[in-house]
Every structure is written in structure tokens, then in C-alpha cells.
Amino acid sequence: MPAKGKHRRPKTLSLTRSIAVAGTGGAALALPLLGAAGAHAAPSQSVSEKAAQSVQTVQSVEKKSVEKKAAKKTAKTATKSYTVVSGDYLSKIADEQDVSGGWEKLYQDNRDAVGSDPSLIHPGLKLSIGAKAAATGGAEKSAAKSSAESSSGSADSAKSSQAERSPQAEQTEQSSNSSNSSNSSNSAESTAATTQAAQTSTSAFSAPVSGAGVGTQYKVAGSMWSSGYHTGVDFVVPTGTSLKAVGAGTVVSAGWAGAYGNQVVIQLADGHYAQYAHLSSLSVSSGQSVTAGQQVGLSGSTGNSTGPHLHFEIRTTPSYGSDVDPVSYLRAKGVSIG
Question: What angle do CA 77, 82, 84 make, to 5 degrees?
Fold first, then answer.
């Protein structure tokens, strides 16, 4: 029996304390686990943010690259405007402005402004440089691609047709070829005769003006000429005298040429160039084909001239300074010059 006034405490209190301690210990153990979980969660969120920033950076760089390329393309295809000044002509402008395709391309791009005659440009006229080149470039490439695909398709069709031909068809074709051989021979002889006649025609040469005497000779020295000497010969003729192409060729320049006044330059069949200067009027235009003896204009006194006459040059290029003796050249072609 326990003593009076004293009670024994059950050991459950100590168990409770132990449980509390255990609970406390559990809590103590749980806290590091929660801390560890938090430590792992933070880096995961940081990597995600960095990845998003990296993607944004790449997109920004790509966008800037595309914008730069677009800006360069726009600058490359930009249209320039050129105002014609006194002494200009299309081939000169095309050379100075580096027009791809030469004066023909320049004329095509500005046909509405220039009109039907490319030689009749005037000071103050505004020309567009590169106006249609950029716009038509894609269409030309597309057309070329379409043409190539069409050619390829035609070739495939031809091969297919050839594969499907019967032996009887081949025999029929051989028979037809044999029967036409004599006709082909006659046709070839006729073509050869025509070609020879055409060559004879294109090889013919003519005097630039009929019945005119030579005034100032070639290479006469003098300070009045920028090169220090006379680069051609002068034929003394009155204004309005008909001037002729000395040989077959193509007109490469027809219009105003500064000191030369109105001029015509013809590229001859042998590669030389014939120049006619100080004309009162023009009878041909740039790009036109001419034959020997065909009228190219009328004599006059335009430009830097002291009176009516024809200044005539033969050059190895269309440019000033490539002159050769025009009288010797024409005599070598069988033309008699007085």
C-alpha cells in the first residue's frame, strides 16, 4: 500500500515527454528535409528562367539579322533619279551610272518618259536608274525557271514518244528522209547562194558624203582640239547635205554630244565605229540597223563648229581618243576619197 498522502505518478508522463521529444525530434528531422527540398527547387526555377532568357536572346539576334538583310536588299534595289543635262545621250548616261544592260536597258526603263525616239532626250528630263530592274528581276528568274521546266517536260515527252514508236513508223520515217534528201540538197545550195549575196552586201562600203572634198585633214595639229590634233576629217558641205552610212552596222549613239553637236555613231560589221558630227538633223536612232549608203542624217553646224561641214571619224572603240585615219580606212575598203 502506498504511503498516505503520496501518489505514484504513472510512467505515462515520461512516455508523453518521450513522445514529445520524439515529436520534436521528428520535427527536427523534417526541417532539414524541407530545407533540402527548398534547396533543390530554387536551382530548377533559375535554370528555367535562364533558358527563357536564352531563347529570347536568340530570337532577338535572328530578328535583327533579318531586318539588316531586308535593309540591305531595299538599299540595293533602290531607284535613283537622274536629270539630263546638256551634252547627255543615253549611252553616255548608262556608262556613267553603271546601268546593267547599257543604254538599251536605260531606254526600256524610261520609254514612257523618253518617247519613241531614244536619241531625242533633252536637258531637264528626269530618268529613273534601276526603276524596273529590281521589279522585273524576280519575274525574269521565274520565267527562266518555267522555261527550263517546260524544256525538261518537252524532252521527257520526246523520249517517251520515241520509246513508243513502232518499227513500222521508223521505216516510214527513213523512207521519207530518203525521198527528201534531194530537196534538202537543192535547198542547201539556195541557202548558200543567199548567204553569199548577203555577205557581199554587208561587206560593201560607201563614202560618208557624195562628191565632197576633204577640208581639214586627219591629225592636223592645233590648240583648238582638246587632243592637240584633229581626230577625224572634215568634208566641206552645205547644211542639209545627205550623210550616208559607210558600211552595214548598228547605230550605237544618235543624239546630242556636246562639242560634237548632233552626232551619229555606227558600229560597223568589222568592229570599227564610224562617227558623224555637227549634224543639223538625225535620220536614225540608237539600236537601229543600217546598210551601206543608207542616209543617217543631214549635215549642219551644231555644237563647237565654225561653219557647215561633216566631221567624220573612224574609231576602234565608241569612245573619244581611239581614232584611226578615216581616209586610209575607207580606201582599204575600196572607197575612193578625193
Answer: 155
What is the rounded distance in angstroms from the CA atom of residue 255 to the CA atom of residue 258?
10
Which residues on neighbouring strands pair with residue 127, listed in sequence order? 82
pTM, 2 dp: 0.43
Is residue 51 situated within a structural domain?
Answer: no
- In the chain, the amino acid numbered 252 is V
Q: Tell me whether strands 249-256 and 126-129 are parallel, antiparallel or unpaired.
A: unpaired
Residue 103 in contact with residue 90, Cβ under 8 Å? Answer: yes
Mean pLDDT of all residues in 17-29: 44
Which residues, 6 or more positions from 3, have their beta carbon under 8 angstroms from its beta carbon? none
Phi, psi of 317 (to 5 degrees): -135, 170
Phi, psi dihedrals of residue 56, rounded to the nearest 5°: -65, -40
In the structure grid, which three cell numbers stand for residue 326, read together? Answer: 578615216
Query: Is 190 inside a domain boundary?
Result: no
> What's the rounded Cα separation, in Å, for the pair 134 and 99?
12
CATH code of the domain in which 114 resides: 3.10.350.10
| pLDDT (0 to 100) of residue 111 | 86
85 assigned to some structural domain = yes
Evaluate whether 244 touches 226 at the Cβ level (below 8 Å): no
| Mean pLDDT of all residues in 302-319 | 91
Domain that holds residue 86: 77-155
Tens digit of each residue's pLDDT (9 = 90 or more) over 123-181: 788 888 875 544 444 444 444 454 455 555 545 544 444 444 444 545 545 555 555 55
- Are 328 and 239 in the same domain? yes
DSSP state of 303: S
Render pLDDT for 262-286 as a digit per residue (tens, 0 to 9): 999 999 999 999 999 999 999 999 9
Number of domains composing the chain: 2
Grid cell, residue 181, equals 534528201
